[in-house]
Amino acid sequence: MEKLVAPSILAADFGNLQRDVEMVNNSKADWFHIDIMDGVFVPNISFGMPVLKAISKHANKTIDVHLMIVDPDRYINTFAELGADILTVHYEACTHLHRTIQAIKAAGMKAGVALNPHTPIAVLEDIIEDLDLVCIMSVNPGFGGQSFIENTYKKVSQLKHLIEFTSSKCKIEIDGGVSDQNANKLIEAGADVLVAGSFVFKSDNPTETISNLKDIIN
Ligand code: DX5
Ligand code: ZN
To answer: Would you say 161 is a known binding-site residue?
Structure first.
């Protein structure tokens, strides 16, 4: 199956947001990755609903929303209304994860779960068949531009095995510190979607960087 690239808008130029959204529209990118941070679950605040609304207005590709917030149940319907196609919540932020996942699907979105670097894959054993996406964090969530944690490869293989062992059709997404230095090894381990923030937006030619990354992994 085709491997996907999801540029993370966190690294875009917010003074030129429409320009950067159009750049992604006209590139070989597959998804928009949108990081919502609340300053409580993670030690940083990114942006919220009005900014997502502005992005949605111009974006013409799948909108993959990564919620780094406590008690995400409060906003599930709002994110559906704002145009999220995939809604990912953190395992560490959900006491009743099964209920949250069902609510995301009931709102018409695909459901994802993100795992912090210290959270083992095994916690997903009893929910994997309900998931459309698992996002393995390859940095501690909260900031763009951090270095990739090498232990991620092992987790990707473990998750790949777990998925193969069940009837799950869930995709494996990697988020944090992704670049052309680790992309191939991540795909070999079983990744399906690579999120890339700084690597794309801080490069001289983001369109070309996306295109090269797509070529490397396909
Ligand atoms: C980190 C976010 C990431 C971030 C990735 O908390 O979830 O999506 O934007 O940025 P880079 O690719 O720069 O590590
Ligand atoms: Zn993210």
So the answer is: no
